Amino acid sequence: MRAKAKYAVIYRHREQYPVSVMCRFFSVSRSGYYGFVKRMNRPEKDAALAETIRQQQDKCFHTYGYRRMWQWLKGSKGIYHNPKTILRVMKKYGLLAEIRRHRKWQQMGGNCTNTRIFSTGTFTPKHQTANG
User: Fold this and answer.
1) Which end of the chain is more exposed for a tag (fewer CB within 10 A), N or C?
2) Which residue from 88, 89, 100 is spatially nearest to 63, judged by alpha carbons?
3) Rounded (5°) CA angle 85-73-66
4) Is the pLDDT of residue 116 over 70?
5) What is the DSSP letter of 44?
6) Cβ(105)–Cβ(112) under 8 Å?
7) Could you tell me what percentage of the chain is helix, strand and coil, using 3-state DSSP and rounding each to the nearest 5?
8) Per DSSP, what are the bridge partners of residue 117?
């Protein structure tokens, strides 16, 4: 269990049990807990950047990865961050690109063919041989 989750449990039950006993039980330091309490009401420093990224992801149908998002932020918005920072923010807020995969050839009836289907429902091969 992450320390942040442990601190949240301690904070939730701070009225019923002593903080020092709960910190010993969860094997976390009291100073870490009080640091967590101090940071609780502070706004996230990445919230504005995440909102900008979210708006662009909505416009581009979640196709921008972190590299392309970094280039877009740098080029059109004038926002300069390390690409790893963009990756971390996109992971944290669930804004990573949806990966699109190419479809492979499908094998039908034992041979792999590349045929064209016309609206009449007839099948014609892409290249015809000399025999027919």
Assistant:
1) C
2) 100
3) 50
4) no
5) P
6) yes
7) 50, 5, 45
8) 123
